[in-house]
What does this fold into?
Amino acid sequence: MNKGRIVKMDLFAIKGFLSVGLVPVLYGVPAYDETQKCSILSGDQIAPYLAVKLNAKKIIHGTNIDGVFTSDPNKNSDAKLIQEINSKNINQVKEWLTGSTATDVTGGMFGKISELLEIGVESHIINALTDGNIVKALNGEKFGTVIKLLM
It folds into this structure.
């Protein structure tokens, strides 16, 4: 990493797993940073990086909520699920996400969406804690929030 951004990653093991039909499950970890000496290599950076390097057709982000909402659904019962983020609604979505107080060290939902916007790979944000959702997403069902290509 350099200044908190992924620069390179050895893809040998990931390609090996994929070649034998396994789906690697990746998540954020502390990583060496050329400038800062240590940064958090977020899953929100890993997924788009790998999608581009491996020519993926889709990214599935499993979270603990049903997708992207107009506000934090854990704090606001009126929060509405945003079923699709695209070039027509992205500015409004950014306003909703910017106003969020629920962030983590890697930027919360705003960080996740920001990483996905310009890579040219359709992305899905789903609740991975709901039984069957991961299988449904892998089988191509669309639910949660779909981020359409904005390129």
In short: The longest helix spans residues 43-53. Residues 44 and 112 are 5 Å apart (CA to CA). The domain at 12-147 is CATH 3.40.1160.10 (Carbamate kinase). Helices lie at 12-19, 43-53, 90-98, 108-116, 133-138.
